[in-house]
Amino acid sequence: MPRMTMIESIRDAMHVTMAADPNVVVFGEDVGYFGGVFRCTQGLQQKFGRERCFDTPINESGIIGAAIGMAAYGLRPCVEIQFADYVYPAYDQIVSEAARLRYRSNGDFTAPITVRMPTGGGIFGGQTHSQSPEALFTHVSGLKTVVPSNPYDAKGLLIASIEDDDPVIFLEPKRLYNGPFDGHHDRPVTPWSKHPLGEVPEGRYTVPLGQAVVRRTGAAVTVLAYGTMVHVAEAAAAETGVDAEVIDLRTLLPLDLDTITRSVSKTGRCVIVHEATLTSGFGAELCALVQEHCFYSLERPIARVAGWDTPYPHAQEWDYFPGPKRVGEALLQAMEG
Amino acid sequence: MNFPTYRQQGLLVAGGYPLVDMMSQIFSNERDPLHGRQLPVMYSSKSHGFFSISGNLGTQYIQAVGWAMASAIKGDTKIAAGWIGDGSTAESDFHAALVFASTYKAPVVLNIVNNQWAISTFQGIAKGGSGTFAARGHGFGIPALRVDGNDYLAVYAVAQWAIERARRNLGPTVVEYVTYRVAAHSTSDDPSAYRPKEESDAWPLGDPIERLKNYLIGKGAWSEERHAQHAAEVEAEVLAAQKEAERHGTLHSGGKPSVRDMFEGVYKDMPPHLRRQRQQAGV
Predict the structure, then answer these.
(1) Residue A152 has what pLDDT?
(2) Of the candidates A112, A130, A161, A116, the residue with the CA atom closest to the CA atom of residue A7
């Protein structure tokens, strides 16, 4: 089976869907001729032509607004916002337009668009190349929000997203593009070629939206994570020796609540981990749901480990990033009492 | 495909959309085509080439350009028309639309309906130092025209020209229609708080229907009697449609859209969390 980085598997997903469906178009800033700043769209213009993969002016609202118009025509746009940090000018188009179009027109018009965005930190990108804005999208009815953690899932989830008839926010943890980064920034990252989830089948397959997966089986405590934090949590469990069950949510909305409640009902303990800022983060929603659905199974208060409530700093990146040390401490604390 | 604002319901009427359906949406009753989910005048009808009206200003302008780009990508001959008011040309999406239309030479007609008032602010607030709204098009290298929007024949001629340009794949055209909002912005607006009554009484540029009537009478193609008869027929048709719509209920009495419908159509397939909430709501 071919081995791919997450960049290659994401590119392969677009390749597969563009080849299968002439209505799939790909565009964004630097996406066409150059192939994207992270090279996710490299070669697509050469293969499918300038009408199916093209560069846009630097105008995020224009990118999403044009995509909505194209979707209303009958195309299936998969667009790239160069960094999730740049999506805010397009927020009105996403929230007030794409997310509501099916509802407000009673299904007369729909917006089957996929918005790909590199998310998260770990590359010394400072406050304009490191943010994790997923909660801004999970809060919006009408959107689906996806965060893959590995090349296999990224391809299957992206194909499922492009084929989906509703707008999908597809957040790609950029620190995972080239390897399963576990938060140990002072060590070289294992390449995806040496990781089982770097094995990516050729051709079309999907990872259905709305299905979480147990990444590490354990009996003592449940860790809810997604994106980069899945690997950080796995590292923290291995390093502390805590028998943690790590759940990779994969899709934040619709959320796979069954997998979560099954695990927490078994372990009775729950630690929620995300890179985004703590307050009103997606962890708050997870915390509320676990409390509502697993209250009588809980042995300890639910813990959250997240980015501090500050803008993403530059020089202090590794003091901000919730790495394996902080997650490990939360695991040990969850096992007390 | 038209990408209208809430000032373009005339496009629907001219396109033969049933008046009873329009009024049923105004009443948010059981026959409301949008099932009570959208504000009364924010219509939507794909089969009438009328894109769903948003209410957030300017967003539809760039969407019209995207629709036109899609038509061009597919080698189709269909064109799009974007609509915007003078005030909303200040929105960033107006500029997004013009730069995309210019860059990709999209087959789109970009209409600016300059009715001179954005609720309480005169057109100068949006226009700034620019001589006209049409001139905005020139900055993007897009041919632009400015026309007396209350002159039926001039409007028709200009629109035909711009549509022809788009159909021949010669690219976008900006058209500014200078008109005047003689009435209030909405039913909750009181223009006497911000502009002299004499101004609206004088009706700058005049009543377009009156002007067309006088022109046709002068040409011997119409008469006062036929006009009065026609006006009476139209009024009777509108009143009959209103009565018919009222039979299906109003927002406050009679037949209403179902509460269950509130949960439908958020997604193509209802996700589990909405299903749980619908159960909680007891519908």
Answers:
(1) 98
(2) A116
